[in-house]
Amino acid sequence: MSFEQNKYNFYGWQDATVLPIDPEYKAAGTPRDFYDLLSGIWCKETCAPRMQDEWSEDNKTLGQCSITAFLVQDIYGGKVYGILRPGVNYHCYNVVDGHLFDLTSEQFGDEVKELVYENNPEQLREVHFAKEEKRLRYEYLKKRVKEALNICQTY
Fold first, then answer.
1. Would you list the domain boundaries of the chain?
2. What is the pTM of this model?
3. Residue 110: its pLDDT value, please?
4. If you average pLDDT over residues 75-98, what whole number do you get?
């Protein structure tokens, strides 16, 4: 996939240049390439249930943050951090080898300017995936990514 300047609008797109640490996902390319792939996979079924009525093709990243951030962590390594949002929910993003990026920030539109990407708590998958619906959405997203990358599925 070729990189075009200003093609991406997610937060930190300029810094999203790391490569997969998991050789199985080599075809995922950089997080920018992975964003392109995810853009064809994110759907109402991968969106957080409380937001599914608002999900649309025009706002594909809505409700996708934690499952996307933990999948990014699987592929690229690093840590997942969370910005506390109203309603005591965390918006998740990734930091990999000093590269900070948020593949799902576009869901906030102009409000993204108000998000503070520093001094936020690390997020743990054990906490997030204690909610079965979230774990199932993550597994579904991961399955669809593997299918798109032609990675052999093991069950």
1. 21-148
2. 0.92
3. 84
4. 94
